[in-house]
Amino acid sequence: MSTSVDHRExxxxxxxxxxxxxxSHICTFLFLNVLFTFAVFxxxxxxxxxxxxxxxxxxxxxxxxxxxxxxxxxxxxxxxxLYGLQVNTYDVTTDDGYVLTIQRIIDPQESAExxxxxxxxxCVHGLLQSSGSFCSSGKQSLAYYFHQQGYxxxxxxxxxxxxxxxxxxSPSDHKMWDWDIIDMAQKDLPALIExxxxxxxxxxxxxxxxxxxxxxxxxxxxxxxxxxxxxSKINCFVALSPAxxxxxxxxxxxxxxxxxxxxxxxxxxxxxxxxxxAMTMRKYIGTSKAYCQLSYMMFNYLFDWNDTLWDQxxxxxxxxxxxxxxxxxxxxxxxxxxEGFNQSKAIxxxxxxxxxxxxxxxxxxxxxxxxxxxxxxxxGHMKSYEPECRYSYIYLENYSHxxxxxxxxxxxxxxxxxxxxxxxxxxx
Length: 428
Ligand SMILES: *[C@@H]1O[C@H](CO)[C@@H](O)[C@H](O)[C@H]1NC(C)=O
Ligand SMILES: *[C@@H]1O[C@H](CO)[C@@H](O)[C@H](O)[C@H]1NC(C)=O
Ligand SMILES: *[C@@H]1O[C@H](CO)[C@@H](O)[C@H](O)[C@H]1NC(C)=O
Prior knowledge:
By secondary structure, the chain is α/β, with parallel strands linked by helices. About 40% of the residues lie in helices and about 10% in strands.
């Protein structure tokens, strides 16, 4: 894999940019209409199926929620204040000028002495997700649990995300969107880690990195041969739904194939962000039940995951913080580049050793129902090609891609094993 992105090709004349902007609006509009129609039919089928399933299923009761907790407010701080905590937000600027948002969970009552005892955990989200994905379930989330276990929890966001901010580029400038996963691994991840190490009160020299999906891809790209010199600053790498090998869905789902095919034809989705209309919707009607149902329907259809394991009271909270802005170039990297998941291939060269004894310990959390990425192949790779790397893994039966964050038993099934691994491998 190349270690830098070719930014030269991203030079389009003003007239070409205008043409792409107009055609992409029309094409995206048509695309969303067709997708919506299919998603509605799928939702009707799912509903009929669930009528039958519900008859045979006993709902496990969940914690009762207060009225305040059930409100839909697109602000993590609102929910954490209900528990006497605070979510502080900071800006971090990357080497190439992108302004990232990082958040930290703070107990305002805590003494400076106690705060200095907390060791840092940095969480990095998946594709189209944000920092919200680690804590939108409040008390039932991994971020909250890590904080309760005595860690200093930081929640990173990759470039553009909630709001595309740069030191001198503006979102309407196509140069703002000239990046893919290599930039995110090479620039965003080090900037986030550096910020945590400088700002944490414990004076730790390394962080525990907990990533989901595409966040794990950033981690794996970085740790492969310690490409960007970050290994010594990471004391443990926890990979939830690790995205190294592509899953079967990428070939099976017609719409994903279509996005893959069109991702290189600039007239269709344009050269800026991927379907910006979705974020406009979230901005204006993101706190309505209708938006939540619509988002769920689309994602359920596209990625085949469902809410069976989630706490229904919290379902709409997850969609307050997703989707977010990503570049079209990133989508093309994933679906139609030599390095990405084109034809379900792997993002690192298979049948080769990626890690050595200086690689931090790795903990893999593999949901076995995940059709988007193929975690079993990764475990197979670790067993066959990584004799020097300390690693462990768990398979979660019944779990799918997002259940590793949003299942109502995520603390018992995912949180506890992570903390156990940290205590046995890192903080012995
Ligand atoms: C993606 O896969 C298709 C089908 O095998 C192939 O024709 C195409 O060249 C691949 N694209 C890239 C960029 O590798
Ligand atoms: C939800 O997804 C799981 C696989 O992750 C599947 O076994 C189950 O049947 C699905 N439930 C519904 C109601 O579609
Ligand atoms: C997975 O689901 C099946 C069917 O609902 C259940 O019998 C089984 O105990 C579940 N497995 C785990 C590990 O929870």
